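Replying to the earlier thread about multi-chain prediction with a worked example.

Input:
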Amino acid sequence: MVINGRWQSRPVTISVKPNCLTVSVDGPLEASVFSYDYAGRMWTALLDGISYRRGLDGKIIAKWQIAGRERNRRWLTADETRQVEERARSTTAGLYAAITEGHAELLSPLPEEGRLVFERAIAFDAAKSAADAVQYHQVYRPVGILPPDQYMAVVLQATEGCSFNTCNFCTFYKDRPFRIRRPAEFRLHALAVRDFLGAGLSLRRTIFLGDANALVIPMPILLPLMDVVHEVYDVASLGGIYAFLDGFSGDRKSVSDYRALAARGLKRVYIGMESGNEELLKFLQKPSRPVEVVRAVKSMKAAGVAVGIIVLLGAGGHQYAAGHVNDTISAINAMPLDMDDIVYFSELIVDEGMDYARAAFQANLSPLTSEERIAQGQLIEAGLRFSEQGGTPHISRYDIREFVY
Ligand code: SF4
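Result:
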């Protein structure tokens, strides 16, 4: 339901949806817009032309664009985070007070659920926000990364870490050893996540089984873990279960295994293939061969499970570029992809502490610029061919710097 009105001589718009409340107040130059989940957590904000997104861990990323330039982003400091939250809260509180005291004109009355979220958002002050972030860290090992279409998932960590942890460009799970949760522990975790999200669960779509490659779990353990998910959550109404798998272990599950997982709600598996070029994968210390990824994808698709294939743009610099482009095209073209699938192009972002940076220096690799990485993605995309019956997968950018959970 959308309610228009005026407050302090400015147009206001209040949108009350079954999963979030959005408040927009026009300003002299730009509107200020805030959205909240049903637990009262600020979710997004737009202030002075800068957009903000708050993660469940309480951190906020700011994003802005200057015309003709690349999009910018920066994580806010703790002080800046408090300021943005407080600005959102005080505007929302001022508007709500005016509504209840009859000083704001609304074209239709605010429904009861709208009042409820207003009151929760106003009560979500700095102390509550800090306590919420503490609870996040009690419930989760920090969620390392998700595919972009899963940022709004309910993440359930069936495993912690990555069973390989060798890839020299990846630092997401260096802080934790790999381990699989047993069903009893996983049930407590799933319940704790549900309790933490509270009424904010309604904003979440899908269930994501974390961490890095949860589907590496052997079937005799994985199936009971999937059953736990169903005990605690209404999987169908949340839109099914999603997970990562490295290309190597994926080969080890059969079509009938994937059918059993699909019957328990598995919808899509994301595979960080990175490249179709074996030499480059060796350089990246990725224990995977493209032929194994292709075979795993065929098994998943035969079982009715969709896939998301992630390609690492710029990997191996100019020296590997031709092989990377040609072999990645060949590998993806050998997969029976269709309109249910996704191909993600993720730019390699190197920071000095990465093993990749040292290996690239030792190998005297010349890196691709951001423009060259994007051009590499376009070159790969131009070589992809999909069947007419199945349709074209969604092809999208995957910028790990914008990950928020
Ligand atoms: S398999 Fe994936 S999560 Fe594990 S180290 Fe490699 S890139 Fe990182």
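DSSP finds 13 helices and 18 strands in the chain.

Feel free to reuse this layout for your own posts.
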